[in-house]
Design a protein that fits this description.
Number of helices: 2
Largest sheet: 2 strands, parallel
Strand content: 25-35%
Shape: globular
Radius of gyration: 13 Å
Number of strands: 4
Low-confidence stretches: none
Distance between the termini: 19 Å
Order of helices and strands: EHEHEE
Strand order of the largest sheet: 1-2
Helix content: 10-25%
């Protein structure tokens, strides 16, 4: 699944997306703009005990840098 949440402005709006239905073993959920919803989503991620991998793409003087964090 792919979620682009950059326009989500509050917890109620996030809850309407029903992300908890997607957070199941065997599912891969890509959340763009995670920092926009991290405060509201982190408790749910802890509760479900689903592994989280953070991918950060940044610009450098010579191109792009990709960092992967568990």
């Amino acid at each position: 699944y792919h979620l682009d949440v950059w326009k989500v402005s509050d917890r109620a709006e996030l809850e309407r997306l029903e992300i908890s239905r997607l957070l199941k073993p065997g599912c891969v959920v890509l959340i763009e703009w995670y920092s926009q919803v991290a405060e509201w989503l982190q408790p749910l991620l802890r509760e479900t005990k689903i592994p989280v991998v953070k991918i950060v793409i940044s610009e450098t003087p010579t191109g792009r840098r990709l960092a992967i964090h568990e």
